[in-house]
UniProtKB/TrEMBL annotation:
Domain (Thioredoxin): residue spans on this chain: 56-202
Biased composition (Basic and acidic residues): 33-42
Pfam families in UniProt: AhpC-TSA
Composition skew (Low complexity), residue ranges: 22-32, 49-62
UniProt keyword list: Signal
Disordered as annotated region, ranges: 22-62
Signal peptide: 1-20
Species in which this protein is naturally found: Sphingobacterium corticis
Presence of keyword Signal: yes
Record-linked Gene3D superfamilies: Glutaredoxin
Protein name: Redoxin domain-containing protein
Top-level lineage group: Bacteria
Length: 202
């Protein structure tokens, strides 16, 4: 039971820090990005405030090296979607996102405009949000992706992703696995669309 609450706590913390990469963060290093999670109001001129430090955050762990066992649920039908349902012979990209995240919306818009370059890649959008919040995401921000056979919108009802794949520091988080199920690359936050397309196809 304690483990369940700790995972749910992590999920809540993740939702609170989601989409935390503003325009000013584009040039920040990884070490600077970990700095952004605390209250910048603490940085004032009083000596009292200067001695305060942000709460320690757990170090981000590496993602699963191979696609772990999972069970997600298709948003439109409610049917389960498991490892065996991934079409074989192509790269599979898991995109962990929050429907309200502006950067997630922007990435999806950019991907949709480049659908012709993504036709041979499995794109799996994953979210722990209520399915009602996810149902119109693609029709609103990625019309060219909506209804395509290689694109799935999946509800992570049991927090399988953060339990078994990875706990990212921000959204969107992209994970590229090869046809053999092995991790090729991953990143969190913003990335230029040309770099995203290259990583998806590598």
């Amino acid at each position: 039971m304690n483990n369940k609450f700790s995972v749910l706590g992590l999920a809540l913390a993740l939702s609170l820090t989601a989409c935390n990469n503003s325009e000013s963060n584009k040039s920040e290093s990884a070490s600077e990005q970990t700095h952004e999670g605390h209250d910048h109001a603490l940085h004032n001129t009083s000596s009292n405030a200067q001695t305060q430090t942000p709460p320690a955050q757990p170090a981000e762990q590496d993602p699963a090296a191979t696609i772990p066992t999972f069970k997600f649920f298709k948003v439109k039908s409610g049917f389960g979607f498991e490892n065996a349902d991934i079409p074989s012979g192509k790269n599979t990209v898991f995109i962990l996102f929050d429907p309200s995240c502006g950067h997630c919306q922007q990435e999806t818009q950019a991907l949709a405009k480049n659908y012709e370059k993504l036709k041979d890649i499995n794109l799996l959008y994953i979210s722990m949000n209520d399915p009602s919040l996810m149902s119109n995401f693609l029709s609103s921000f990625g019309k060219e992706l909506d209804g395509k056979p290689n694109v799935e919108m999946l509800y992570d009802r049991n927090q399988d992703f953060i339990r078994n794949f990875h706990i990212p520091s921000m959204f969107p988080a992209n994970y590229v696995y090869g046809p053999d199920g092995k991790l090729k690359s991953y990143w969190v936050g913003e990335k230029p669309i040309a770099d995203i397309l290259a990583a998806f196809a590598q």
